[in-house]
Amino acid sequence: MSEGWFPLLAAIAAMTLLRGLGMALAWRLPPGHPAIAWAAAVSEAALSAWVVLALLSPGPWPLAARLAGAAIALATFMATGRRLLPGLATGLLAIWVVDALLR
Amino acid sequence: MHPAFRQGARESLGAHTLAMAATFIAFGAAVHAAGFGLGWGLASSAGVYGMAGQMVLLGTSGAQPGAATAAVAGAVMANARFLPMAAALAPLVRGPLAPLCVPFVAITPWAAAMRRLPATPAPDRAPWFLGFALSAWTTGLLTTALGYALAGHLSPAVLRLLLMVNVLYFGLMIAAGMSRGGPWRASLGGALAAPLAFLLPAGVPPAWGILGAALIGGTAAFLLRHR
């Protein structure tokens, strides 16, 4: 699998460029600059879009299991005073259980 | 050692690490299953350090003609969000340590930094970020190796479940931010624009959908921010 090294090294260089370019472009701008506010909004939107697409796109678990897992995780998270670990644990359990029930 | 560095490293241990570790274990196991070596997996986790791009590379870095170009282009698209993320982080870590922060701009440290750093004294911000990020990055490398070693011992169902940990984790992080009055417009904008990705023609990499949704939802949130 030596073929895999060239794309990997090229991708590492590209990632470094993306990160460095973002940092350099914003280097002299004050925190409240509109360009910074826009970049932050786009980044936050990218994160939530990624989560929504991971939940809705065809994937390794049935859609119903993924949605049930997300709902249970959120409900537990809110019910336990916004504690992440109980939310995560019950969400994963719900995915597993709903998947088993659907089989 | 700077106290803020220690504090950042301490804060990275917890749900952040658990969620990230689960994903990297699954990645390590997938690297083994794809026939790549441990060195390749570790280099990917260390240098690409963005799971979406890592998975694209893993899935496309084959021996077929033209695979290398497609793999690199796909990974860049999948992780293109690093550019605006680094731009948003730059004012918070500005100073002599900022260049050291560059390789660690990735979802986990970035999301934690954007929530934590605005309330942190300016001189402590870069050391805190470096402490958090270096700890998270090291965890990523260790768990990649662990996943590689465990490959074959984990059931496919467990591996599939590990891939869901990060999705739920970031979903909860966003919910927490929104309930505290954080950047809810941008989070909501991205979530509402995300289904537009399903309108993309067949064959277009899903990463373009994320980027498009982020640009549309994020820009709308930015334009509506003072209303």
TrEMBL record, chain A:
The chain crosses the membrane at residues 36-56, 63-79. The keyword Transmembrane applies. Keywords: Membrane, Transmembrane, Transmembrane helix. This is Branched-chain amino acid transport protein (AzlD). It comes from Muricoccus roseus.
UniProtKB/TrEMBL annotation, chain B:
The chain crosses the membrane at residues 20-43, 55-77, 97-114, 126-151, 157-176, 206-224. The keyword Ligase does not apply. It holds the Pfam family AzlC. The keyword Cell inner membrane does not apply. It comes from the Bacteria. Keywords: Membrane, Transmembrane, Transmembrane helix. This is Predicted branched-chain amino acid permease (Azaleucine resistance). It comes from Muricoccus roseus.
